[in-house]
Amino acid sequence: MQVHLNPPLEPGSASQLAAAIVAAAADISDAELDYSPASIGVVEEIVDGFRAEGVGREEMAESLVAFGCYLGEIVTRHIGGAWRPAPATHPTTAPLVVELPDARECHPIDWVFGRLEAGATFSIRDLYTAAAVGGAESGLGAR
């Protein structure tokens, strides 16, 4: 999948991409994204809307990646951790992951693509909760 983002998708630019999607969501759909864990539901609703319209991952790749950056910013602000390049050994949709304080990785960009593909059976809120709770059974994968 090719995405053309400005700025390019790198650990240092994820927060800028998140801020851009916050502004775009407010302009396009009056969605309020305030970086709170509660706003994850708003992202799920937006992605569900894309799905209902029959939008594919390639058509909306830039927006989906930006929403993933937004989710990653929620993770880093409320749970901790930092953006870093995805390891070459783990296939991901995007080349960035959030490394949590306990060295587990989470993949918020993949979360968004998973929601688009699977619909409401794929819960971003549950993945966030697993990241917050921690432990080996969180399903996020240890490094």
How is the secondary structure organized here?
Blueprint: H1 14-29, H2 40-52, H3 61-78, E1 82-85, E2 96-99, E3 105-106, H4 108-118, H5 124-133
Helix pairs in contact: 1-3, 2-4, 3-4
Walk me through what this model shows:
The protein is mostly helical and 143 residues long. It is 48% helix and 7% strand. The chain is built from 5 helices and 3 strands. The chain has a 3-stranded antiparallel β-sheet with strand order 1-2-3, covered by helices on one side. A hairpin with a 5-residue loop joins strand 2 (96-99) and strand 3 (105-106). Helix 1 crosses helix 3 and helix 3 (61-78) crosses helix 4 (108-118). The protein starts with 13 loop residues before the first helix and ends in a 10-residue tail after the last helix.
Describe this structure in a few short sentences.
Helix content is about 50%, strand content about 5%. The chain contains five helices and three strands.
Give the fraction of residues assigned to helices.
40-55%
Strand order of the largest sheet: 1-2-3
Nearest-integer average pLDDT: 88
What is the strand tally?
A: 3
One letter per element, helices H and strands E, the order comes to HHHEEEHH
List keywords for this structure.
48% helix; single chain; mainly alpha; 3-stranded antiparallel beta sheet; 143 residues
